[in-house]
Write a structure and sequence with these properties.
Blueprint lengths: L10 E5 L4 H14 L2 E6 L2 H15 L3 E5 L5 H12 L4 E6 L14 H29 L4 E5 L12 H21 L5 E5 L7 H6 L15 H13 L4 E2 L3 H12 L2 H12 L4
Parallel strand pairs: 1-2, 1-4, 2-3, 4-5, 5-6, 6-7
The structure holds NADP nicotinamide-adenine-dinucleotide phosphate.
Length: 268
């Protein structure tokens, strides 16, 4: 399957569309590609505000699904609501949460919620949407937002790094399994992005847009959509992040873990 994906006049579903990269992915798809979007997140007010903006500025259709990805019933409902009365062509599983600090200090319920949000919901939504896209036979696609932290072990973001390693590996495996059935799977693995995720975790004190390959969400979204339309199986945006990804392939993981520990170690 070599043809580029076409989003114009078609529906894309985007999780994590109330903030950061998700908002910019929706804006980019509406503005640059005239695509209709289903916006998914917990904060309804933000989804409604974005929906109004996209309808008014770009004349596209927008639907909102309020759902908590850490709740299994909500995850099922996303599929039912999104596919009721519309054909979904592209699914971008972007939502994610992190925790910065010593792994042994992360609360158990916080870890469970991270695992449910970053991993379990992604697998469940894939198991619902991949057969749906295969059945429709229109060469749709899925994109998983992973992270460079899924390619390199990142101490002090241990659980997050583990969830993103899962997402990367699962996505690359799935890509091979479903490509012959006419559906592409893209794993998009950015480095730092200046969003609420950095602010909420406290990492914004350490990394800002322009530092160490940290991108703005607008810049990052443009890279992501480009890679998705070209049906890349794994894409890392930006030269510095690509260098890190290359280092992850050639340098010992223990050495990389030691170096990233020095960068991420919180001040005590
Ligand atoms: N920022 C970075 O430095 C960075 C680097 C590499 C990869 N990434 C990845 O990029 C993706 C987007 O992150 P971001 O930086 O844009 O973060 P963000 O600004 O914090 O946005 C996260 C989005 O995920 C949604 N979300 C979180 N938990 C959810 C839940 N339980 N149920 C439903 N939605 C939930 C949030 O919506 P509600 O709170 O409204 O539900 C929000 O829309 C994530 O997968 C992240 O891991 C980020």
């Amino acid at each position: 399957m070599t043809q580029m994906m076409e989003l114009r006049g078609r529906w894309s579903l985007i999780t994590g569309a109330s903030s950061g990269l998700g908002v910019e992915l929706a804006r980019h798809i509406a503005r640059e590609h005239g695509g209709h979007v289903v916006l998914v997140a917990r904060r309804r007010d933000r989804l409604e505000a974005l929906a109004e903006e996209l309808r008014a500025r770009h004349g596209v259709q927008v639907a909102c699904v309020t759902a908590d990805l850490s709740r299994p019933d909500d995850v099922e409902r996303i599929f039912t609501e999104a596919t009721q009365g519309r054909d979904i062509h592209a699914v971008i599983l972007n939502a994610g949460v992190t925790y910065w600090g010593e792994a042994m200090k992360q609360g158990w319920s916080e870890f469970q919620s991270m695992l449910d949000t970053n991993v379990t919901s992604l697998v469940r939504l894939s198991s619902l949407f991949v057969p749906y896209l295969v059945e429709r036979g229109t060469h749709g696609g899925m994109m998983f937002v992973s992270s460079v932290a899924g390619l390199i072990p990142v101490p002090y973001q241990a659980a997050y790094s583990g969830t993103k390693a899962f997402v990367t590996s699962y996505g690359q495996c799935l890509a091979q399994e479903v490509r012959p059935k006419g559906v592409s799977v893209t794993v998009f693995a950015p480095g730092g992005i200046s969003t609420e995720l950095l602010v909420n975790s406290g990492l914004s004190n350490r990394f800002k847009a322009g530092d160490m390959g940290v991108m703005t969400p607008e810049e990052c979204a443009a890279h992501a959509v480009r890679a998705f339309l070209r049906r890349k199986e794994l894409y890392v945006p930006g030269l510095l992040n690509q260098t890190l990804a290359l280092a992850a392939r050639v340098l010992p993981r223990g050495f990389l873990a030691q170096r990233t520990a020095a960068i991420y170690r919180p001040e005590s």
